[in-house]
Design a protein that fits this description.
The protein has 94 residues and is mainly β. It is built from 1 helix and 7 strands; from the N terminus they run ββαβββββ. The strands form 2 sheets. Strands 3, 4, 5, 6 and 7 form a 5-stranded antiparallel sheet that branches.
Length: 94
């Protein structure tokens, strides 16, 4: 399920929609994203996202705590996240 804007009779509605309900034009125009899972705790996470852009990044621990780290963009396909301590969790690239 995704939380997206759905148009009905010109009104903007925000609701849950299954990806299978979206037509190909909507899917083609959605912003690309990637979720990196870091299962082994580390001070540096290397993320290969293949998004062909410099994405915004949000990191969360396995207990859903927002994590703060320094982002180093290596190129449009890869980045590193540096933390003060060993951490594991996820990085959402958008």
């Amino acid at each position: 399920m995704a939380l997206i804007r759905k148009y009905d009779n010109g009104l903007k509605l925000l609701g849950k929609v299954k990806y299978s309900e979206l037509d190909n034009d909507v899917i083609a125009n959605m912003d690309k994203h990637y979720i990196h899972e870091q299962s082994t705790a580390a001070k540096v996470w290397t993320v290969t996202h293949n998004l062909n852009k410099l994405p915004s990044v949000q990191c969360y621990s396995t207990t859903n705590e927002l994590l703060y780290g320094d982002i180093e963009y290596l190129n449009n396909y890869e980045l590193k996240i540096k933390f003060k301590n060993n951490r594991n969790g996820i990085a959402i690239c958008n």
